[in-house]
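Write out the 3D structure for:
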Amino acid sequence: MKLVDVYFGAIKLFKLEQLNDNRGSFVETFRTDELKHFGIDSPFVQENQSISQKNVLRGLHFQYALPQGKLIRVINGAAKFIEVDIRCYSKNFGKYHEFLLKAEDNLMLWVPFGFANGFLSLADNTIVQYKVDNYWSKDGEGSILWNDEELEINWGIPNPIVSQKDANAMLFSDFSIKFYGKI
């Protein structure tokens, strides 16, 4: 595992090493000792997987009751990930970074709590797999509107396929007022 870069002082992008021979390939996808070496000492308690068709957009999701850090991989297809900094004390509050994860690139993304996460599937049958360091809480989840004009996110598509929940998500300004009492 090689650290590619760090974003907003918190998000870490890794490249997993792939060994190839005449039989195929092998990749170590998870090692706690390697993650600890890079400052990630989270006890992962749940693993999730989503399968999405091309142009499906999921997000921008976050958990506030049981905040979650996420270790994310694309194991089939490709997806554009958007990570919005929702840490009110951060100089990057309300800013985002985008990442392109493709199965064949063997990239892995660590996103600690304090970010709203979303992705756009760029291929049919895109499989996103991610470990989290806290359990999902229906009563403690939130969603920021994927196309909020204030965030100025360029998803690269005008009309993605979104769930009703994501279509009705809160504006970033409403999030700021609800959770921090300010805009």
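The mean pLDDT is 96.
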